[in-house]
Structures are given as C-alpha cells and as structure tokens.
Amino acid sequence: xxxxxxxxxxxxxxxxxxxxxxxxxxxxxxxxxxxxxxxxxxxxxxxxxxxxxxxxxxxxxxxxxxxxxxxxxxxxxxxxxxxxxxxxxxxxxxxxxxxxxxxxxxxxxxxxxxxxxxxxxxxxxxxxxxxxxxxxxxxxxxxxxxxxxxxxxxxxxxxxxxxxxxxxxxxxxxxxxxxxxxxxxxxxxxxxxxxxxxxxxxxxxxxxxxxxxxxxxxxxxxxxxxxxxxxxxxxxxxxxxxxxxxxxxxxxxxxxxxxxxxxxxxxxxxxxxxxxxxxxxxxxxxxxxxxxxxxxxxxxxxxxxxxxxxxxxxxxxxxxxxxxxxxxxxxxxxxxxxxxxxxxxxxxxxxxxxxxxxxxxxxxxxxxxxxxxxxxxxxxxxxxxxxxxxxxxxxxxxxxxxxxxxxxxxxxxxxxxxxxxxxxxxxxxxxxxxxxxxxxxxxxxxxxxxxxxxxxxxxxxxxxxxxxxxxxxxxxxxxxxxxxxxxxxxxxxxxxxxxxxxxxxxxxxxxxxxxxxxxxxxxxxxxxxxxxxxxxxxxxxxxxxxxxxxxxxxxxxxxxxxxxxxxxxxxxxxxxxxxxxxxxxxxxxxxxxxxxxxxxxxxxxxxxxxxxxxxxxxxxxxxxxxxxxxxxxxxxxxxxxxxxxxxxxxxxxxxxxxxxxxxxxxxxxxxxxxxxxxxxxxx
Length: 683
Description:
single chain, alpha/beta, Rossmann fold, Beta-Lactamase, 6 domains, five-stranded antiparallel β-sheet, 40% helix, 19% strand, DNA binding
C-alpha cells in the first residue's frame, strides 16, 4: 500500500518545486498531496503518514488539523548552484536584504547562505509585510515575489528554495523507501543543488548511518568514489569512478574489487582496518591520488571506501583554496595599456616586456624609484600563461629579516613564540602556479639570499620549523633600484643568486630620458584627479626642464599638489619645485659644451632633432615660420614617425638653448643663428 506524504507551506510556487523534487526521486511509490496555509481543505484534517512542513510558523497554524499518528518533518532548505553564483557576484561589503515568506524562514536562509561561503556581504533577513525599506540597497528574492519593500537599487532573484538532501533522506527513512531510491535520480536531482550537510570525511569517520544511505550520499559528490563491502565486493561506484576507471557501473557493480582494482589498496585496509592516505598511483593512464578508509561502526567492519582524484584536478583545487586563503586582493590589476607614454624608450620597454611574458624565465626589472617597476611586473604576469593564478607581491625592503623570512617561507605551529596556531603557508606556497614579485630584492640579507637561491634551484621550500619539502611551481619577477653588479663586486650580493635572477633583464627608463611623455602624463593625472587647470607656457617649459628625480611618482604628486590649490591657470609660483635654471640666461663655457649637452638630452632621438632643425632652416631660407603642424606634415611626407607632441618637446628644448625662437599663437617658430650652427655641427 502506498504511503501518503503531505507538503504544507505558504506559496504555490515553492510547494510545487518541493513536490517536483520528491516526485522525481520516489516516482509512483508514494502519494503526494499539496496544501497551503490558507487552503480550506486543511480544516477538514490532514490525513497523511508523513507531513513535510515548510517552517515552525506554518506548523503552529496547521497544528490543530494534524492527526496524532502522523509524523512530521520540518524542511531543511538550500539553494541552487546558479543562485549561489549570483550571490557570490555581489560586490564585497555590500548591504543586502534577503526577503522570505516569514521571519523564521528568512533567518534560516541567511544562515544557509553564510554556511555556503557567501560571507563577503552583510545579509539582513526580512519577510513579507515587515516594516522595512529596501530603498537604495540590494534585495535578494527567492523566485517570484509580488511584494517589494521600497525601491531597491538592484533585485537579485536566486530562484526558489530547494529541499536539502538531508530532508529527502529523512523522508526515505520515515517512509521506509531506501530500497527504491534510485542512485541515478539522486545524482540528476542534486547535480545543480548546493548541499549544506555531511562532509565526506566526517561521514566516513563518524557516521552512524546505514550503508545504503552512505551510498546515496556518495553519488552526489564530485570525487570519484568506489566502495567495497567487508568481503571486497564492489557496492558503490559513482559517475566520477566511471570516468577514471573506464568501465561502466553496470559492469563493475557486485564484482570482486580486490582483483579488478588491485592497484587500489583495498586488501590492506580491510585486513588491517587502517586508512591509507593519498597514494600516488597510475590507473588507466591517469596519474591519480587515492585514499582508502575503512567503514567501521560499533567495532564492526562494514567495508572500505576509496576516494580517487586525478592529480591535475588536485592541482586546480589547491589553486582555488590558495585563492580563497589569500583573498581577492593579491591579483595583478595592471596591463600594458595602463602604462602611459608614446616615447620610443617606453614603447620599446613595453614591447620587450610583452616578449618576456611569453617565457617562463625569471625577470629582473631595474630602474629608478618611481618609474613603475611593479606596473611592468603585473603587466608581464597578465600577459603570461599564469594570468589565471595568483600574483603575490612583497616589498623586501619594508620588512625586517626575521619577518620577511616567515612571510616568504611560512612556518609550522610552534616554530617560534607568537607563531599562529596551525602554522602559516609562505608566499612561495601561495604563489604556486602563479607569479611571485620580489620588490627591492637588493635589500635582502645574505642569509635570505642563500635560502632564495635554493628555492630557485630546487623549486622546493621548507617552512620554518618544518621537516618536509614542499614543491612549488612559480615564476619569479624581481625588481631593484640598486646596481646589483656593483653590489656583487663589493660582496654585498651573492654572485650565484645574481646570475639566477639576471635571466631576462628589463630596464625601465626614467622620466628625464622620455621628456616628450611629461605633458601627456600631466593631462592623464589631471583627469584622474578630476582637475580642470591649464598650464602657462612657462610652466610647460618648467615641467619639461625639471629634473624628475622621483620620476612618474613625483610628477603625479606634483599634479595632485596643483589640483589642491584650486587654480585655473597654473603659474611658476604654483609649482611645488623650484625652477633653478633661468630660462632666459643659460651661460656655458663655450658653444661645444652647449651642443654636447643638448645632444645628451636628445639621446636616441637625435635624428628627430636634426630633421626639425633642417625643416626650420628651409623655412628660414624661404622667409617662413613653421608651426608644429607644418613640421608634422613634412615628417609624414618623408615617412618619418614623429608625433606632434614630440615636435613640441624638441622645440621647447631647442628654445631653452637659444637654437630657435618660438612665437605665441599660430605665428610659428624660426631657427636662430645658433641653431644653424648646431645643425652644421650635427651634420
């Protein structure tokens, strides 16, 4: 005779989903009736073997109509994987309201969501009819809701709540239906549902459930599971096992597993009743890690269960765990497009870094302070094959030796006074599969240099106070503003470590060597700080001629200073640095020293200076003044790549040394006699 199950709750949509879940699992073996709290039929009496109640508040409303012989189960609810993914996409620290059908259910669902790992947001439970406004906040709803409190800025529908697997198992136990639960139906029904119950390890070690119930739970897990009874006969074999072993379930079930699966240590575990943890073996061509645990209850051996995982899958899970452990902050944010500048020097540097990103070799980035060494390190990581993994950065000069050592290598519990309980993984471990960026590498002590050298040679680390080596797969990028060659000569830096680091060398140009980028950078920082000032012509010259010892960082600070003054037209006196050079009176010992100084400023762009001087001389001979646009058009005709901004910088530098005379407005520039002498000198 079929057993009768009654489902009672608030809304038709939710009760229909519960009914669909139960019907798909128990099919025609039970009779399911649906009731709603405002349904008139309830008052006629609830005649059922088992009553599934949505919440305690619902139970209080229908209690007078329940027969005493009827058993009751309160629903444990959960949500779908798709719903959880929507919640995880809500920005961190967002204030979120969760709307459910009553206060008890709302509170329970908030607890479920926190239990499933969504602890990055602040959740507040609310219920239908509550005097709460969601105005300006994010509102989570479960399925369709006609009630919306206030005007939320965003509504996130995570779908109707679902029955957790524990409730389904309780229904089967109460109605005696374990024998008709079909494993494939459990698997299909719970493939997209996030369960809050029963970790596999605690199930094996502590469970008092029957063997059949254990088997049902194993079908839901993602790991490959094979179970044998005390005689070694296979009784559990899930979909994951099919993929690794290569044989279908129908072929493997109820066969003698100790012979079919002789590489898996079932025999040892059954004979010794001891677990075997994480053996690396090969099955069907796969490198797999297998752990086998005996199933013992009340000193009686019921069998053993093997958990099998592909070695590559373990690596991926470790990456996910490391990502959770270090948080979302340790990611490379910058790409090459974020590095500003159109000078030849910076473009070559970006081009070289893109090539280096394709390699897996160690990179040594050199350059003055403030040139953007970490930006280039992040850009290299984001263009490499490791971009999906961690980018872990540490400033070696900011930490004392003992603290830096524990940060880099980690430590075991009790390694020293104040060591964290359980120990702590080091940055080498956290950067596994990703990139470790060591800034100011020239600051580390001789002791740490030795340990770092060993890691680079062996790709193994040992925690402080530890006794085992941990394999790490990292790419190292180091940076320094010091001359490591000179430090090696003085004995301040290990020569062998230097050659380990100096595989791919990237030198970042200072700002003084790419002065054509100065004014575009000023405009960029002005937009970044929402500034609206204009530069006086003399101020532009001052920016270009200033000795930027702090490089781009100093320039950015200078723009921030100007914006704080709230001036519309920036004058010389508004600048945070002194203009030490008198732009009108540059005195040199002789013409040759002047020429040599200008040639040094021009650097690799000397051909562009010659081109500009030649065009100005032609204009002079034709009694014409030339503007930047005219010179730019001439460069296009001669297939010479030179931007208008570069031409402007060249003209300003030439005027500084009395080589040209620039006129305001659109009247153009004319070469001086001194400039003609320079052109002759350069030719």
